[in-house]
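Lab notebook, bench 4. Still working through the backlog of constructs that have no structural model yet. Next entry is a single chain of 263 residues. Request: give me the structure tokens for it.
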Amino acid sequence: MAKRLLPLALAFLLGLSLAQDGKALYQQHCAACHGTEGQGIPGAIPPLAGNPRVQDEAYVVKAVREGLSGPLEVGGATYQGVMPPLPQVSEAEARAIAQYLKGLGGTAAEAAAPAPQVQGDPALGRALYLGQKALKNGGAPCQACHTVAGVGFFGGGSLGKDLTDAAKRLGGEAGLAALLETPAFPVMREAYKGKPLTKEEASAIAAFLVQVSQEAPRPSSLYLGRFLVAGLVVLALLLLYQAVLWQLRPRSLAERIRAQLRR
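Model written out:
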């Protein structure tokens, strides 16, 4: 009898260990967007607690490691955001997260109960994005790596994706604020390691990006202005170069004689 119970006990302990590890991994990699209890963000990020999809371990593992994009219907609500892939999470870790999610109770409708709305200051967000106002913890401004159509005369960096439609892709203001507070993208996570955005900063930048997504992009006039300025700069440099060459050129005999007479 004891020999028969031993495998069951070991399996139970193993399952308990996986669930505990899964909870820690979930809090580390998933809670920033889906909530500490898997409740999600209404209208932005789907709930995981009570979500029937989380009972499919293979589905969860694939979603964690390869990402997921909408439209996605959960509990009668449709979500259009994009979940970024988390390749830094190993398959074993993703399975542990899946095991933990299976044990979350409630229903999707209950988990998606209204949460406090994020309402940041878009004017502050613009200043933080452009670097006109420094981030409290010393992180680099968003424009160092990203571009937004019509914002910033010289564009921005090319390391990250264009953020013009980020609000539509990443769950609106609430989804963006959650991602900014606890980045899911590996490069961004490293860039802000030890220098996290505050809740106010994340909300403000998220509100600014929502505002940008609602405005008609003006790329033509923006690029025309940039090319015009670039052309004027190049012309000025060429004129300066010509002036320097003229001063350094060998003087003719007549010029040397005139110079002697002026003395």
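Notes after review: The chain has twelve helices and four strands. Confidence is low (pLDDT under 50) at residues 8-18, 109-116. Flag for follow-up if needed.
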